Amino acid sequence: MTGRILRIELRRSAALGTALLILVAGAALLLSSTQFFAGRWMQLAVMARSLLMVLLPLALAGGAWMGRRDARHRVDELFASTVRPRWQRVIPTAGALAVSVVTAYLLVFLIAAGWVVPTSNYFPSATVVVFAVGVPALIAAGWLGMAAGRAVPRVITAPVLAVVGFVLVGLVPELAMAPDTGAEIAQFRPEPAAVLLVPAITGLDDFQTIATKVSLLQALWLGSLAVTGLLLLGAVRRRAIAFAVLPAVLGVAVALPLLPVGGVRGAAVVDPVAIELVCDNDGPQVCVTRAHAGLLPAVVGPARQALDMMAAKLPDAPVRAVETQQVAYWARLDPDTAPARHSADTIVFDTPTIDRLGRADLSGDYFLPSLLEAAWQQECGEQSVRGDVYRARIVATAWLTGRPPAPQTGWAPEEMALLKSAYQALVSLPEVEQRRRMAAVREGVLACRDDELVAILPGDQS
């Protein structure tokens, strides 16, 4: 009997409409920004979790609309007069909503997976766990919405809940992560552990994943919240309402002390498999990380061209190029952690731009200059790049190409004239002296010193 009622609810109730709304909204948002996850499974899971800022309010509103159904049709008193317990009547309806919203969430993920499968060569097992946390989150939102709709059966309840849900899920965590401001420069404070009670996450680097412990704690909390929503939906007396809140209280009491501070950055860990190097050895070795293995065919040509150009000008030039294995500074809880340095025979380049299909976007001719500029950089930890260091790198890169510095977007003509003047002063030296000076620059860079690099600028620019 319950199964038959469930099927009827799935066909005729607002559960189907709520699911369609979640499916359309989720798919539209994901497919409008495929460049942020194409070719990367973990980033797709993170994007799906970030969608919860929109999907949870929709589930809340859909649940509230379903919750007011009995009052809307004026059958409250009729159902209350029957001997059948209320929970037996609400479970099929609540089950229909849960099945609908979860199915829509899964379909959004599967649709977006079409932009990951063709170019991905690595599937982190944690992808399933990170994505799955959204399931109890949506169920909890739907059931709490139904309980609110039953308690306050007004037309305005659904839209009000949608707004409140967006504020709680989307805005409150942002306020918690806002920097402290005062007379000095704004200082970012570690986000409280309670931020992770909100299931929506953003800002994960391609080399990171959410710690499994954190995902399980979030699932525990959200599951207890879903139980509270279901109990509230079936509660009739005040004592039952008070008892219904108990699972959520216990869930937060267990999860909150065990969650790390620092928000997503505190919950993130480096995936050791994602940063493993995948190399092409048919010539000078070129490597990318396993997370970006699909980019290797596009990167090999420009990387070997850059190595050839260095070999023609630099003594003891680097002979291999590898993609950086460092997490972006904005994704680290401690940005001052010093990374491991590569040997002198290696240049370390940044990940190229990834396009909407998950392939390397090398349009605009930016990648070869960035590879050449990598000869004058070393992964020395988080350092502020002074203006004179940046200008000296441009001049040194131009020396490798044998052409004056190319115009830089946003730079004033006077600044470009100074760069060209510095370049002319460098190439006017005897070739032997040029090589000696630039070899000294390379040695200084490898030792994380900028003095030798800045010294190639005329005195009035350094």
TrEMBL record:
Swiss-Prot/TrEMBL keywords: Membrane, Transmembrane, Transmembrane helix
Taxonomic superkingdom: Bacteria
Parts of the chain that traverse the membrane: 42-65, 94-116, 122-144, 151-172, 214-233, 240-259
Protein name: Uncharacterized protein
